[in-house]
Amino acid sequence: MHFTITIPQGLPEMTVKELLEEHFLIPRKIRHFLRIKKHVFVNQKAINWQSIIHPHDKITLIFDEEDYPEKSILIGKANLVEELYQDEHIIIVNKPEGMKTHANEPAELALLNHVSAYVGSTCYVVHRLDKETSGAVLFAKNPFILPILNRLLENKEISREYWALVQGVFQKKRQIYTDKIGRDRHDRRKRLVDNKNGQYAETQV
Protein backbone atom coordinates (compact mmCIF):
# COMPACT_ATOMS: atom_id res chain seq x y z
CA MET A 1 0.00 0.00 0.00
CA HIS A 2 1.13 3.50 -0.81
CA PHE A 3 -0.34 6.62 0.84
CA THR A 4 0.41 10.32 0.41
CA ILE A 5 -1.21 12.62 2.97
CA THR A 6 -1.06 16.43 3.05
CA ILE A 7 -0.66 17.84 6.57
CA PRO A 8 -3.60 20.21 7.27
CA GLN A 9 -3.13 23.83 8.31
CA GLY A 10 -4.44 23.38 11.86
CA LEU A 11 -2.07 20.58 12.88
CA PRO A 12 0.81 21.82 15.11
CA GLU A 13 4.43 21.17 14.20
CA MET A 14 5.72 17.83 15.45
CA THR A 15 8.25 15.13 14.67
CA VAL A 16 7.60 12.35 12.19
CA LYS A 17 7.69 9.92 15.14
CA GLU A 18 4.95 11.85 16.95
CA LEU A 19 2.83 12.06 13.80
CA LEU A 20 2.93 8.32 13.13
CA GLU A 21 2.48 7.31 16.77
CA GLU A 22 -0.01 9.84 18.14
CA HIS A 23 -2.02 10.97 15.13
CA PHE A 24 -1.90 8.14 12.60
CA LEU A 25 -1.99 5.53 15.41
CA ILE A 26 0.31 3.19 13.51
CA PRO A 27 1.21 0.15 15.68
CA ARG A 28 4.74 -0.01 17.10
CA LYS A 29 5.69 -3.03 14.97
CA ILE A 30 4.60 -1.28 11.76
CA ARG A 31 6.41 1.93 12.74
CA HIS A 32 9.56 -0.18 13.19
CA PHE A 33 9.18 -1.59 9.66
CA LEU A 34 8.66 1.91 8.23
CA ARG A 35 11.78 3.21 9.96
CA ILE A 36 14.23 0.42 9.12
CA LYS A 37 13.00 0.19 5.50
CA LYS A 38 13.07 4.00 5.13
CA HIS A 39 9.51 3.91 3.85
CA VAL A 40 8.56 7.38 5.10
CA PHE A 41 9.08 10.44 2.90
CA VAL A 42 8.31 14.12 3.43
CA ASN A 43 7.82 16.07 0.23
CA GLN A 44 9.35 13.10 -1.65
CA LYS A 45 12.56 13.23 0.40
CA ALA A 46 13.86 10.62 2.84
CA ILE A 47 13.84 11.84 6.45
CA ASN A 48 14.87 10.77 9.92
CA TRP A 49 12.49 9.99 12.77
CA GLN A 50 13.01 13.36 14.46
CA SER A 51 12.40 15.49 11.36
CA ILE A 52 9.81 18.22 11.95
CA ILE A 53 6.71 18.22 9.78
CA HIS A 54 4.80 21.40 8.95
CA PRO A 55 1.38 22.28 7.56
CA HIS A 56 1.08 21.52 3.82
CA ASP A 57 3.94 18.99 3.91
CA LYS A 58 3.16 15.83 1.94
CA ILE A 59 3.82 12.65 3.93
CA THR A 60 4.27 9.47 1.89
CA LEU A 61 4.06 6.05 3.58
CA ILE A 62 4.85 2.76 1.87
CA PHE A 63 3.58 -0.48 3.40
CA ASP A 64 4.70 -3.95 2.31
CA GLU A 65 2.53 -7.06 2.41
CA GLU A 66 4.24 -8.19 5.63
CA ASP A 67 3.24 -4.90 7.31
CA TYR A 68 -0.49 -5.39 6.78
CA PRO A 69 -1.17 -8.93 5.49
CA GLU A 70 -4.48 -8.94 3.63
CA LYS A 71 -7.24 -10.69 5.51
CA SER A 72 -9.02 -13.30 3.41
CA ILE A 73 -12.82 -13.53 3.60
CA LEU A 74 -15.54 -15.05 1.47
CA ILE A 75 -16.53 -12.87 -1.47
CA GLY A 76 -20.16 -11.82 -1.41
CA LYS A 77 -22.44 -10.30 -4.04
CA ALA A 78 -21.53 -6.80 -5.17
CA ASN A 79 -25.01 -6.16 -6.56
CA LEU A 80 -26.44 -6.25 -3.01
CA VAL A 81 -24.50 -3.10 -2.02
CA GLU A 82 -26.18 0.32 -1.99
CA GLU A 83 -23.34 2.85 -1.89
CA LEU A 84 -23.92 6.15 -0.09
CA TYR A 85 -20.36 7.52 -0.21
CA GLN A 86 -16.88 6.32 -1.18
CA ASP A 87 -13.38 7.76 -1.39
CA GLU A 88 -9.82 6.42 -1.29
CA HIS A 89 -10.04 5.26 2.33
CA ILE A 90 -13.66 4.66 3.32
CA ILE A 91 -17.00 3.50 1.99
CA ILE A 92 -20.43 4.09 3.53
CA VAL A 93 -23.28 1.83 2.46
CA ASN A 94 -26.92 1.33 3.38
CA LYS A 95 -27.43 -1.91 5.32
CA PRO A 96 -30.83 -3.44 4.65
CA GLU A 97 -32.98 -4.87 7.42
CA GLY A 98 -32.41 -8.59 7.95
CA MET A 99 -28.73 -8.63 6.95
CA LYS A 100 -25.85 -9.02 9.43
CA THR A 101 -23.06 -6.44 9.38
CA HIS A 102 -20.39 -9.14 9.62
CA ALA A 103 -20.44 -12.92 9.66
CA ASN A 104 -20.22 -14.97 12.85
CA GLU A 105 -19.32 -18.22 11.07
CA PRO A 106 -16.56 -18.79 8.44
CA ALA A 107 -18.99 -19.91 5.73
CA GLU A 108 -21.54 -17.16 6.42
CA LEU A 109 -22.08 -14.17 4.13
CA ALA A 110 -22.89 -10.73 5.54
CA LEU A 111 -22.69 -7.07 4.53
CA LEU A 112 -18.90 -7.03 4.98
CA ASN A 113 -18.53 -9.79 2.39
CA HIS A 114 -20.75 -7.99 -0.11
CA VAL A 115 -18.97 -4.64 0.41
CA SER A 116 -15.58 -6.31 -0.09
CA ALA A 117 -16.84 -7.77 -3.37
CA TYR A 118 -18.13 -4.34 -4.38
CA VAL A 119 -14.81 -2.60 -3.58
CA GLY A 120 -12.65 -5.39 -4.98
CA SER A 121 -10.59 -5.97 -1.82
CA THR A 122 -11.12 -6.88 1.82
CA CYS A 123 -12.76 -4.09 3.82
CA TYR A 124 -12.90 -3.62 7.60
CA VAL A 125 -15.89 -2.98 9.86
CA VAL A 126 -15.70 0.31 11.78
CA HIS A 127 -19.05 -0.08 13.55
CA ARG A 128 -22.02 -2.39 13.25
CA LEU A 129 -25.80 -2.34 13.17
CA ASP A 130 -28.01 -5.13 14.50
CA LYS A 131 -29.39 -7.56 11.95
CA GLU A 132 -32.91 -6.14 12.31
CA THR A 133 -31.71 -2.52 11.89
CA SER A 134 -31.25 -0.76 8.56
CA GLY A 135 -29.08 2.30 7.97
CA ALA A 136 -25.67 3.69 7.06
CA VAL A 137 -22.59 1.62 7.97
CA LEU A 138 -18.99 2.84 7.68
CA PHE A 139 -16.22 0.55 6.45
CA ALA A 140 -12.47 1.15 6.18
CA LYS A 141 -11.03 0.17 2.80
CA ASN A 142 -7.60 -0.60 4.27
CA PRO A 143 -6.17 -1.58 7.69
CA PHE A 144 -4.09 1.62 7.92
CA ILE A 145 -7.13 3.90 8.25
CA LEU A 146 -9.07 1.58 10.61
CA PRO A 147 -7.55 2.66 13.99
CA ILE A 148 -7.92 6.33 13.02
CA LEU A 149 -11.64 5.84 12.36
CA ASN A 150 -12.00 3.82 15.57
CA ARG A 151 -10.51 6.68 17.59
CA LEU A 152 -12.79 9.24 15.91
CA LEU A 153 -15.74 7.03 16.84
CA GLU A 154 -14.58 6.61 20.44
CA ASN A 155 -14.04 10.37 20.78
CA LYS A 156 -17.53 10.97 19.35
CA GLU A 157 -16.08 12.93 16.43
CA ILE A 158 -18.19 10.60 14.28
CA SER A 159 -21.80 10.90 15.36
CA ARG A 160 -24.68 8.51 14.73
CA GLU A 161 -28.43 8.97 14.92
CA TYR A 162 -31.04 6.21 15.06
CA TRP A 163 -34.70 6.46 14.13
CA ALA A 164 -37.26 4.01 15.54
CA LEU A 165 -40.93 3.46 14.78
CA VAL A 166 -42.86 2.76 17.97
CA GLN A 167 -46.46 1.98 18.81
CA GLY A 168 -48.46 3.48 21.67
CA VAL A 169 -49.28 6.84 23.24
CA PHE A 170 -46.72 8.93 25.16
CA GLN A 171 -47.80 10.98 28.16
CA LYS A 172 -46.14 14.08 26.71
CA LYS A 173 -45.97 15.33 23.15
CA ARG A 174 -42.17 15.63 23.40
CA GLN A 175 -39.86 13.81 25.80
CA ILE A 176 -36.09 13.37 26.10
CA TYR A 177 -34.56 10.31 27.77
CA THR A 178 -30.90 10.47 28.87
CA ASP A 179 -30.50 7.07 30.50
CA LYS A 180 -27.01 5.65 30.00
CA ILE A 181 -26.67 2.54 27.85
CA GLY A 182 -24.36 -0.33 28.82
CA ARG A 183 -23.77 -3.99 28.07
CA ASP A 184 -25.86 -6.78 29.53
CA ARG A 185 -23.43 -8.66 31.79
CA HIS A 186 -25.25 -11.91 30.98
CA ASP A 187 -25.11 -11.43 27.19
CA ARG A 188 -22.48 -9.07 25.72
CA ARG A 189 -24.43 -8.92 22.47
CA LYS A 190 -27.23 -7.06 24.23
CA ARG A 191 -27.48 -3.51 25.59
CA LEU A 192 -29.54 -2.20 28.49
CA VAL A 193 -29.97 0.87 30.69
CA ASP A 194 -27.00 1.14 33.05
CA ASN A 195 -26.88 4.58 34.66
CA LYS A 196 -23.80 3.64 36.72
CA ASN A 197 -21.39 2.23 34.11
CA GLY A 198 -23.12 2.94 30.79
CA GLN A 199 -22.30 5.54 28.13
CA TYR A 200 -24.34 8.69 27.60
CA ALA A 201 -27.24 8.33 25.19
CA GLU A 202 -30.04 10.70 24.30
CA THR A 203 -33.42 9.59 22.96
CA GLN A 204 -35.94 12.16 21.73
CA VAL A 205 -39.60 11.21 21.21
TrEMBL record:
Keyword Isomerase included in the entry's annotation: yes
Span of domain Pseudouridine synthase RsuA/RluA-like: 89-204
One of the record's GO molecular function terms: pseudouridine synthase activity
The organism's place on the tree of life at top rank: Bacteria
Catalytic activity annotation: a uridine in RNA = a pseudouridine in RNA
Swiss-Prot/TrEMBL keywords: Isomerase
An individual GO BP term: enzyme-directed rRNA pseudouridine synthesis
Keyword Cell cycle: no
Stated family: Belongs to the pseudouridine synthase RluA family.
Protein's name in the database: RNA pseudouridylate synthase
Species the sequence originates in: Streptococcus anginosus
